[in-house]
Amino acid sequence: MGDSFFNCCYVPPHPPGEEEPQRPRRSEIMASHPAHISPDKRFLIFFDFDETIVDETSDDMVVQAAPGQHLPGWLTDTYQPGRYNEYMQRVLAYLAEQGVTESDIRSVMEKIPATPGMLTLFQFLRNRPAKDFEVILVSDANTYFIECWLRRVGARQLFHRIFSNPATFNKDGRLVLRPFHSHDCPRCPDNMCKQVIVRDYVARRTQERGRPYQRIFYVGDGANDFCPALSLGPRDVAFPRRDFPMHRLITETHEAQPGEFKAVTVPWVSAEDVVQRLRKLVAD
Ligand SMILES: [Mg+2]
Ligand SMILES: [Zn+2]
């Protein structure tokens, strides 16, 4: 089913030898009033990107575009814990200095495999009635990597909003990355707390709609997906990738502080596990 989705929906990003048409990237992604989202959606579903939608970490994969497919030690030595965003800014600057182009980076991104079952989950969401799912992506990768990949599999239109670190090419052909925001959550890296994003989004949309969602879902894998999932309530469902950090943190919290983590927890190995549970929940 995943393969058939891929085949029927795959559209080459642009014909060989032709320039890709200019798209309003940042304005489209960052628009603060998504007027096209209908107010009657029953469910809100959040997705992480790296190791959740794609089966790799895009920041690691981009190294394949570097000369010799590796980064020099003087560069990797500059990484400091909690300052990952600044480190990636330096990596992207290095790639540009080495002559790596936008099309080199895009072709690396487009080769990243989907996580098992993920395209089936996308197809399930797409085939539901329009009033069912509002679909949001929250990622500490960057807008450029995510847009490349989603367009490649024909899934860009599924996502009503993408929250990620803004990244655009400057006139010198360098991909310039910036932090998403600043916050004071002690659990999260300086540039992004997904709980702040999720809370703000749910509060704003609930006000715009004039009523809450029936349920909120969160599909993720990382430690930075645990923080937003903590804000979910007892009718909501957290879908942590089994045996990944988000799952371990939920399990540890259940043991150390019972009642602190409120959402129903459904670990998944294939995203088809997520489809099975959603099928039951939307039938309620
Ligand atoms: Mg992740
Ligand atoms: Zn946080």
UniProtKB/TrEMBL annotation:
Alphabetical keyword list: Hydrolase, Magnesium, Metal-binding
Active site: D48, D50
GO function terms (MF aspect): metal ion binding; phosphatase activity
Pfam families per the UniProt record, alphabetical: Put_Phosphatase
InterPro entries in UniProt: HAD-like_sf (IPR036412), HAD_hydro_PyrdxlP_Pase-like (IPR006384), HAD_sf (IPR023214), Pase_PHOSPHO-typ (IPR016965)
Family indicated by similarity: Belongs to the HAD-like hydrolase superfamily. PHOSPHO family.
The protein's name in its UniProt record: Phosphoethanolamine/phosphocholine phosphatase 1
Organism: Oreochromis aureus
